[in-house]
Specification:
A 4-stranded mixed β-sheet has the order 2-1-3-4, sandwiched between helices. A 3-stranded antiparallel β-sheet has the order 5-7-6. It is about 50% helix and about 15% strand. The chain is of the alpha+beta class. It contains 11 helices and 7 strands.
């Protein structure tokens, strides 16, 4: 049972939204600082019902043209948020696969099996979409990614195709509409029966200000010491991470972050691999 004093952050999200991808290091930094005081969850907001009918800042219409526009938008956004994106050809949308609803529904199907695995699946969907340019709205790719994180793919496929996931997703869409969400991500902060809504991407400092106003100083954040053990523990917790995630969690600059990562690499505790226009840092068992 949740503690009544626990802080909740609920993100209205979509697996293909670049500013939701950008929010990953922010949420991980807040979790590192508030630990068990904070619970994070997700509501699927369904960004693109059909790219051919979509129109947002010039993106939408023909799937091939949209893919080019999206890739450019992601690259420009990456320069600001620091999360890696693909540098190759993007083939996310097509006439056969024009929607991001399949990714949303797949998450809801996974959620019925195991919440922790579902959240790992959501992260994997974001990575595969943003960095690996996989067509994550295809059933084949969705099942492969689900299997990678340990989900039962047969059960997931059943929930995905028998209407269960669609019904659960429709519930999320109703909540999205009820809250008047216009932008993804949008966040609900809840504490002791009170809540505040924050639209769009938020910095760690922006969240901290909102949290302290909501909690009236009853909760305190603690930036974890940037020891080798703590940094390695963070990487092991999440499987693999991006430098900006370590920088935000431990309040470090890039130079010090990479110095500490290379020290772990020299001890054969982590590996570094290229990921689009950035890198992933993986823990070794």
């Amino acid at each position: 049972m949740k503690s009544k004093s626990q802080l909740e952050i609920i993100e209205f999200t979509d697996p293909v939204c670049t500013w939701c991808w950008a929010s990953e290091p922010v949420l991980r930094a807040l979790k590192a600082r508030y630990t068990d005081q904070l619970e994070i969850s997700f509501i699927m907001g369904g960004l693109v019902q059909d790219i051919r009918d979509f129109d947002d800042n010039g993106i939408g219409g023909d799937p091939s043209d949209s893919n080019l526009e999206i890739a450019q938008h992601w690259m420009e956004a990456s320069l600001h948020h620091g999360m890696p994106v693909t540098t190759g050809e993007l083939e996310l949308f097509s006439d056969e696969h024009p929607s991001s609803y399949p990714q949303n529904m797949a998450y809801k199907a996974a959620q019925s099996e195991d919440q922790d695995l579902a959240d790992r699946f959501l992260r994997r969907l974001r990575e595969a979409t943003a960095v690996e340019a996989k067509q994550t709205n295809s059933e084949e790719v969705l099942l492969a990614l689900a299997g990678e994180v340990g989900l039962d793919t047969e059960k997931l496929l059943t929930r995905y195709t028998d209407g269960t996931a669609e019904t659960d997703f429709e519930t999320d869409l109703s909540l999205t509409k009820a809250y008047g969400v216009r932008l993804l991500p949008t966040f609900i902060l809840r504490y002791k029966g009170k809540e505040v809504v924050l639209e769009n991407y938020q910095s760690v400092d922006g969240f901290e200000q909102a949290i302290q106003q909501l909690c009236k100083g009853e909760l305190t954040a603690s930036i974890p010491p940037a020891s080798s053990d703590n940094i390695l523990g963070f990487i092991r917790t999440y499987g693999h991470v991006v430098p900006i995630e370590l920088m935000m969690a431990f309040e470090l600059d890039m130079q010090i972050t990479m110095k500490k990562v290379h020290a772990l690499e020299e001890k054969n505790l982590v590996t570094i691999k290229k990921a689009g226009n950035g890198i992933f840092i993986d823990a070794l068992l």
